[in-house]
Design brief:
This protein has 344 residues and is α+β, with helices and mostly antiparallel strands. It contains eight helices and 16 strands. It has three domains: 86 residues, ApbE-like domains (T-fold, Roll); 81 residues, T-fold (Orthogonal Bundle); 130 residues, ApbE-like domains (T-fold), CATH 3.10.520.
């Protein structure tokens, strides 16, 4: 599996307000990458559920085979084990994700960096053993010195990857988004243009749930223990990816340490931003940008989103409560349709 993390960002597929007699989308579901997946197909379509479920699983299992850091037989594990300086030929899909991640690392000045895997392991959130105390400063500086996407060379002509130093490449911040894209593309290829793909809370909404009803998504407040819907958003022909620090962490001597590690400081993030949700056409790209914004925090993240015209909704801590702020693109494209649920 790609990663065994707790659900970082949760969305809730909301049933429409239609009468119970109205046909409902058919839902295919299962487990992959250490989390759940759900594929909802609009009522406009007739299809063979067994055939589509098998096709979806083929797509997901192939991505897992290529990009997992938990499977010892994965292509990425083989890359990480190859001696430094030796090129490794990789499949087109893995090369695409590595190249996209490299580009986002460049534009974000390293706020997203898939060589952060060594630090993730050091803090107990990767495939290495969990920890019971915080790393020493010596261990931290050693791992931080090893981080750097510039130490990965991608040869587009030959589709090879070369590690210049012993970096640990971890694609958990982008591969799930890529999987959402690939499942959506598969459904389109099967003529199922109205669908909602949900892999561990990362979404792609295409078309409508029925002729007259949109897919409606509930965005949770960042609560550690219970689901509380903060916003309701109709989605069509767009991906929504999220990252948050509130459901996967450990505590040591009264301090809570987030699973999100800053490639810049080498430490878990420590600011008021609790969750960020990014909307865009490409789920893999949105996945990585959600990590960028969470690493940067509410102020720098908002500035970055506005600079690069990213649709993003930030939920940040304000004392004992939470507040939200939208990027300019999010406000322009989604603010008018977003609802705030009434609490009874």
């Amino acid at each position: 599996m790609l990663k065994t993390l707790s659900l970082l960002f949760a969305v809730i597929l909301l049933a429409s307000c239609a009468p119970n007699s109205e046909p409902q989308p058919q839902v295919l579901e299962g487990r992959i990458f250490g989390t759940f997946f759900e594929v909802s197909v609009g009522v406009q379509h007739e299809f063979n559920p067994e055939e589509i479920e098998a096709g979806v699983m083929d797509v997901l299992n192939e991505i897992d085979r290529q990009m997992s850091t938990y499977r010892q037989d994965s292509v990425l594990v083989a890359v990480n084990k190859t001696p430094v300086g030796e090129p490794v030929a990789v499949p087109d899909e893995l090369f695409y994700v590595l190249a996209l991640g490299y580009d986002i690392a460049e534009v974000s000045s390293g706020a997203y960096d898939y060589t952060v895997g060594g630090l993730v392991n050091l803090w107990g959130f990767g495939p290495e053993a969990s920890i019971t105390k915080t790393p020493s400063e010596t261990e931290l500086q050693q791992r931080l010195h090893e981080v750097g996407y510039q130490n990965v060379v991608l040869d587009a002509e030959n589709k090879t990857v070369t590690r210049l130093t012993d970096v640990f490449i971890d694609l958990s911040g982008i591969a799930k988004g890529y999987a959402v894209d690939e499942v959506s593309d598969y459904l389109h290829s099967m003529g199922l243009s109205n669908h909602l793909v949900n892999i561990g809370g990362d979404l792609m909404a295409q078309g409508k749930r029925s002729e007259n009803r949109a897919w409606r998504i509930g965005i949770e407040a960042p609560n550690d223990t219970r689901q509380v819907v903060r916003h309701i958003l109709p989605l069509r022909d767009v991906a929504m990816l999220g990252s948050g620090d509130y459901r996967n962490y450990f505590e040591h001597e009264g301090v809570r340490y987030s699973h999100t590690i800053s490639p810049i400081t080498g430490r878990p993030i420590a600011h008021k931003l609790a969750a960020v949700n990014v909307l865009g056409d490409n789920a893999a790209e949105a996945d990585a940008f959600a990590t960028v914004l969470l690493v940067l925090g509410e102020e720098l993240g908002l500035a970055f989103a506005n600079q690069y015209d990213i649709g993003a909704l930030f939920i940040y801590r304000d004392g004992e409560d939470f507040n939200s702020v939208m990027s300019e693109r999010f406000e322009r494209e989604h603010a008018e349709s977003m609802e705030v649920p009434t609490l009874n």
